[in-house]
Amino acid sequence: MAELRWTFKQEDHEGRPAAPARPVEEAERWIRDRLSEGHWLAWVVETGGIIRGHVFLCQVERMPDPYSDNTPVGYVTNFYVTPSQRNKGAGSVLLGALKQHARSAGFDTLIVWPSERSSPLWQRSGFQLPEELLELPLDT
Fold first, then answer.
1. Structure-model confidence comparison of residues 7 and 27, the more confident one
2. Radius of gyration for the alpha carbons in the chain, expressed in angstroms and rounded
């Protein structure tokens, strides 16, 4: 999954240096740690025993509220399918499994920060522009 993450991000950075500035082992550790903690989940699609796509879900807890429940929100990220498997239903299977899990686990909402390129895909999958979300970029 870490190698696919690096491939995914390299596709996003076309025209930049081909060699990653950080080692894939960093992603391997991060993914292994987060999945073992249980707040992150991942779904994969395989062909021939090789992972060809994945999507990740992070449970975001909400504070208790005296007037409504505090069901979690799901942050969806790292949705990627290799070029050879695109337009063959792999992405739909991944998102379908994620959405089914989120519903059965009682999530209130799923959120995603799409790229300009991926926004139509997310909208076709039922995601809508938020009415209440605000963002404050923190310059470092």
1. 27
2. 16
How far is the C-alpha of 87 from the C-alpha of 52, rounded, in Å?
13
The count of other CB atoms within 10 Å of the CB of residue 13 is: 10
Count H helices and E strands in the chain, helices first: 4, 4
Strand ranges, E, within 1-140: 40-47, 50-60, 73-81, 109-111
Rounded to the nearest 5°, which phi and psi values hold at 73? Answer: -105, 145
Q: What are phi and psi of 15, to 5 degrees?
A: 90, -10
**Dihedral sign (CA 68, 39, 44, 6):** positive
Question: Which pair of tokens denotes residue 112?
Answer: 């995603």
15 pLDDT tier (thresholds 50, 70, 90): low
